[in-house]
Amino acid sequence: MLLYGLLALGAVGCAIALPRRRAGGQALGALLAAVAAGALLLTLALAAGPDRPSLYFYIFAFIALAASLRVVTHPRPVYAALYFVLTVLASAGLFTLLGAEFLTFALVIIYAGAILITYLFVIMLATEAPREERLEALEECDIQSQSPVLAVVLGFALLGALTGLLSQAGAAQAADQDLQRNRLYAASQGEPAMALLREKAREALVRAGFPEDVRVEAVTPIAPYLAYIEPRDAADFGELVRRSRRAASAAALDEPASEAQQEDLLPASALALLPPLAEPIELRGRQVFQVSLPKDVAPTNIEAVGVALLHEHPLALELAGVLLLMAMLAAVALARRPVESAEPALKPLLLEEAP
Amino acid sequence: MTLAQSPAAAQLLSEIGLFHYLFVALAMFALGVVGFLSRRNLIIMFLCTELMFQGAGLALIAFSRYWLNHTGEVFVIFVLTVAAAEAAMALALVVLLHRARQTLDALAWSSMRG
After folding, report:
1. DSSP letter at A176?
2. Do A234 and A275 touch, CB atoms closer than 8 A?
């Protein structure tokens, strides 16, 4: 309930902050909305308990919300675009907190670096230069926003409805104890990203000294990375582990080897990865052994996104390229078309440069 | 600490954490809706649609983290692509509209209102 009250407060602040003909009060409205946003985040933080995201989430979230508020309410277009750059940067920070590093870079480079620069160029082109008698004037359309109250009511009603829906869904799912296990299981089903992780796990295990024909049946998709390997014969593998451990402890105590050194014993680096009790576990009808993997087996976000993009969605990638090409051609075609101008004084100039 | 060992990727996102991120994404989207409906400057209106894209992208990434899937991130790549294409088209149209009426006011085209 408190959440809805704070939303209403934010709505009121937003409505006051939108550009109006009667000056004054807008700073107060913006401050009110910012306070409402801060209080909302604080409420979320207090309600969360031990599961709450790190402090940086709240910092980035507050910056993103405050900057997007200023985008919407600032009367000058250039400042609105610059505040939007700030929103993009805060959003990129939130992406990093969610582990999507590639998209952080992509967002900053593409959005802040290309799209918004284009916006700024067009704003510069389309805004009149200040003349003698109107030095600091704003465009008429920036002074008064149209039906601010209705717009704010609609927007915040949407936000309130979706927030209510989400909080109900969240409460229902939090009660499901098996959801965590189901998520892990669902994530480890034969996807290209998981196939990449399994391949890296297999290479790491072979490097550590496991036999070449070890087969990785499953890997947990998050840290600590555990692999479930299926050797050719579970009983043989168990025996191999015991013999290797005996040989290793014999070597550690500098005792003479009681039996001839066999080449297929597992080295110490492989033994370190096995749990103390190397017993086979039943997984999906197979006998597997649990192994803990070295830390560098985790695929970086760029690797994983690249694999997902190219293995699962190659057609969409091609279509995106075609879309960009079409947009570029269409923009060039649009910009070349001569337009009937309202001002007669400019007509000779326009006729001259029309193709 | 390499990227692969970043703490962000090392743990599951809980339902409460997901709700936090989705709330921020929804708030950005709602602010975009408010701006789109209330501002009259054409460029600011398109900037608010870009703000809505940001909200949608953040929601996608949050879900991608929650389900330990990378489909959401791949979709955000395409959202960025579409946003770039849409920005190019929208700005070309705004330039043309500005040339026609010498103003960026959306109400200058209100004669189209039925």
Report:
1. -
2. no
Distance of alpha carbon B109 from alpha carbon B101, whole angstroms: 9
A48 shares contact with chain B (CB less than 8 Å): yes
CA–CA separation, A12 vs A147, rounded Å?
Answer: 14
Q: Which helix (H) or strand (E) holds A220?
A: none
Q: Do B74 and A309 touch (CB under 8 A)?
A: yes
pLDDT digits (tens, 9 = 90+) for A181-220: 666 666 665 577 778 888 888 888 888 888 777 888 777 7
A97 touches B at CB < 8 Å: yes
ω before A224 within 30° of 0 (cis)?
A: yes
DSSP states of A307-337: HHHHHH-HHHHHHHHHHHHHHHHHHHHHHHS
Sheet holding A215-219, edge to edge: A215-219, A226-230, A286-292, A281-283
**Contact between B105 and A139 using a beta-carbon 8 Å cutoff:** yes
Reported pTM = 0.81
Which residues in chain A have Cβ-Cβ distances shorter than 8 Å to B54? 68, 87-88, 91, 111
d(CA A264, CA A283): 26
Instruction: Please give the sequence-ordered ranges of beta strands (E in DSSP) within chain A, or none if there are none.
Output: 215-219, 226-230, 281-283, 286-292
Asked if A313 lies within 8 A of B74 by C-beta distance, the reply is yes
Q: Which whole number is the average pLDDT over A317-333?
A: 91
pLDDT at residue A153 greater than cutoff 80: yes
ipTM of the complex: 0.91
| Sign of the dihedral through C-alpha A174, B6, B79, A317 | negative
What tokens does A79 get?
A: 């400042």
Q: Which of A69-78, A91-100, B24-33 has the lowest mean pLDDT?
A: A69-78
